[in-house]
Write a structure and sequence with these properties.
Radius of gyration: 16 Å
Structural class: mainly alpha
Largest sheet: 2 strands, antiparallel
Shape: globular
Order of helices and strands: EEHHHHHHHHH
Number of domains: 1
């Protein structure tokens, strides 16, 4: 049995849906919606103009992740590569990437640094890590509070395309 480390995102109903078949175009199509840290900003409910959607996300974050500082009002975010409000006011990766002029933290000479370590996640790994909290999570809550943090596949693609990973990995993924 073989599997690919490259998730494939297809557009369905205005949302990118992930399956396990591969991704070449995702980083290019949604470049402005992939955060410096690799987060899938395009999947995050914090971008919603609908305050009720943001409230549902905040409720799910509180229930499953223990976040207590977010409200439907202060969580509104345009994505870290865009000008405007940003949900994570304490993020260290965004200002660092802007200061260094890199499109992605993965392209920084210091990657992976301490600013990034807690931001690098794999959706399924995060789910397993938080299984005691997530065990009975509804599909709606999962889509509201988990999908955006699947950053490692995006960082992997960026590193691969920038030639920063061994050549044998590039050949394997082609």
């Amino acid at each position: 049995m073989s599997f690919s480390l490259r998730p494939h995102f297809s557009r369905r109903g205005g949302v990118f849906i992930c399956n396990e078949k591969g991704v070449r175009n995702m980083a290019k199509k949604a470049d402005k919606l992939i955060g410096y840290c690799g987060y899938n900003c395009h999947l995050c409910a914090a971008r919603s103009e609908d305050i009720e959607v943001r409230q549902k996300m905040v409720d799910a974050w509180r229930k499953y992740l223990g976040h207590k500082n977010y409200t439907a009002e202060n969580v509104y975010c345009v994505g870290c590569k865009n000008e405007g409000p940003h949900a994570d006011k304490k993020c260290k990766a965004r200002p660092c990437a802007i200061e260094k002029g890199v499109e992605s933290c993965a392209l920084c000479d210091e990657f992976p640094c301490n600013k990034m370590r807690r931001l690098m996640g794999i959706e399924k790994g995060m789910f397993i890590f938080g299984f005691k909290n997530f065990g009975q999570i509804s599909k709606e809550d999962y889509n509201l509070c988990m999908r955006q943090w699947d950053s490692v596949p995006n960082l992997y693609i960026i590193l691969l395309e920038a030639g920063r990973l061994p050549e044998w990995l590039r050949k394997r993924e082609m």
